[in-house]
Amino acid sequence: MITYRCYQSGDEENIVALWNSCLPKDPITASRFRNLVLLDANFDPKGLQLAYDEDRLVGCVYGLRRLLPMIGTDLEEDSGWITFFFVAKKYQNNGIGTNLFQNVVKFLKENGRKSIFFSSYAPNYILPGLDEATYPEGYQFLQKQGFTRLYSPVAMDLSLLDFYMTEDIQQLKTKREAEGYTFSIAEDKDLYEVIQFANKVFNPDWGRAIREGILQVLPLERILIARHQEKLVGFCLYGGYEGVGERFGPFGVDPEQQGKGLGKLLLHECLFRMKAEGLHNAWFLWTGEKSAAGHLYLKTGFEITRTFHVMKLEC
């Protein structure tokens, strides 16, 4: 007989084991699960719904809502998120996943949520959406639950083995420097401005990633900034997420300064520094394939390695 309940202390070992059995292409360690789920300021045990066959965990769905604002006082009170779900293979197609989803949706609706997303949650998303190519059954399942696709960000990877700073990049940098632009490694005096720039011009999650990355493991040598006559106009970094050195980003240039190759210069300088550290690859999880950044990445030699679907359910 299948029984359903929310997370209780001690379940994490079973959750990690079942996760790695069901999602072998996206495994997780106990420490990552602890950091990304249990220690998330928005974690609520009622949102982590489990299915047991006697003492054997056979299914899991995790939903959450914002308890701590990303910035200011905005709790996004209409929105909830589901960031992962899985059911043991031999227990699939028996209604267990549907029952778990219904429990999570009920939890979120009871807390006033009108829209539920998979899985564009920040800060601690596992993947930015559903990878249909890797998990076609999962994509079909979400559709059966009433989720519809909103957009499809892509992940990209670049091998650094053949990367080098070309002459045209050097010439572009010299030209921009003659116009009053500077490119440098961030110092303590730059941090407040960089974080506020990331928060206000781009996404509060980027400012959070920079702040928390520095507090944990991110050295300032991995943060590059661009200025024009002392005004901050762009930044990029690597190693800011979970201390993974090869993970590139976040990265942004003031929209008013675009079209001058500043993003290209920051990107190439960052990739050069990554290779100089001995890193062999650069990768990131989330960009728009048709965006200006997406085009820049592709021109630089990045290749699309995964496509995700951000999904939405109207309650």
Strand order of the largest sheet: 1-2-3-4-5-14-6
Output the number of helix runs: 9
Helix content: 25-40%
Distance between the termini: 30 Å
Main beta-sheet strand count, sense and barrel state: 7 strands, mixed
Poorly predicted parts: none
Helix/strand layout:
Blueprint lengths: L1 E5 L5 H11 L7 H9 L9 E6 L2 E10 L13 E9 L8 H15 L4 E4 L17 H9 L3 E4 L2 E6 L7 H12 L2 E5 L5 H12 L1 H13 L6 E6 L2 E8 L9 E6 L8 H15 L4 E7 L4 H9 L2 E5 L2 E5 L1
Parallel strand pairs: 4-5
Antiparallel strand pairs: 1-2, 2-3, 3-4, 5-14, 6-14, 7-12, 7-13, 8-9, 9-10, 10-11
Explain what the structure shows:
This protein has 315 residues and is an alpha+beta fold. It has 2 domains: 2-126, Gcn5-related N-acetyltransferase (GNAT) (Aminopeptidase), CATH 3.40.630; 162-279, Aminopeptidase. It has helices at residues 12-22, 30-38, 96-110, 136-144, 167-178, 191-202, 204-216, 262-276, 292-300, and strands at residues 2-6, 48-53, 56-65, 79-87, 115-118, 148-151, 154-159, 181-185, 223-228, 231-238, 248-253, 281-287, 303-307, 310-314. The strands form 3 sheets. Strands 1-2-3-4-5-14-6 form a 7-stranded mixed sheet. Helix 5 (167-178) packs across helix 8 and helix 6 runs antiparallel to helix 7 (204-216).
